């Protein structure tokens, strides 16, 4: 049956292949299990139909077997009562019932074999489905770990490359330039401050000389008086 063949094709390799293509492994695994569960439900319906066929043939076999035994007993009683004609008719019907029994028995054997095979396959499907359910969390964890590793690898692929090194060198040169400019500005400012200090000193010195000249003038005036 197509259902069982399709289910047998659902192996761990196919799951891993789906995970490789999946953008969301959680959703993909959930959908995968949902599909498997649907296949199981369809298989159960198919198995139930085959079991019904098996039971039907079994009933017909049992009925034919009972008729064979019944006609045999009836033929014996008829013969015991010296009714040979009735015994012949009973034996003739017994033959027909035996033919029917043989045919129904063949059909029953085939239907039972099919039903047993489908039962076994359905059991395997359910076992595999339960295994997949148990492995779902593990597969999701593996998928998430692989996804994280892939992201890290992509990030690391550009880490420490020549472009990055050149970028750091440019930034280092820029910082050195900024420091040099700051130092030059500070020296210029310091030079301007020294000139101002000297001029201020000159102004202060000029004031003292004036005071000293005034003081000498006063002393001279006092002597003359």
UniProtKB/TrEMBL annotation:
<feature type="coiled-coil region">
    <location>
        <begin position="33"/>
        <end position="149"/>
    </location>
</feature>
<dbReference type="Pfam" id="PF04012">
    <property type="entry name" value="PspA_IM30"/>
</dbReference>
<feature type="region of interest" description="Disordered">
    <location>
        <begin position="175"/>
        <end position="225"/>
    </location>
</feature>
<comment type="similarity">
    <text>Belongs to the PspA/Vipp/IM30 family.</text>
</comment>
<feature type="compositionally biased region" description="Basic and acidic residues">
    <location>
        <begin position="194"/>
        <end position="217"/>
    </location>
</feature>
<protein>
    <submittedName>
        <fullName>PspA/IM30 family protein</fullName>
    </submittedName>
</protein>
<dbReference type="InterPro" id="IPR007157">
    <property type="entry name" value="PspA_VIPP1"/>
</dbReference>
<keyword id="KW-0175">Coiled coil</keyword>
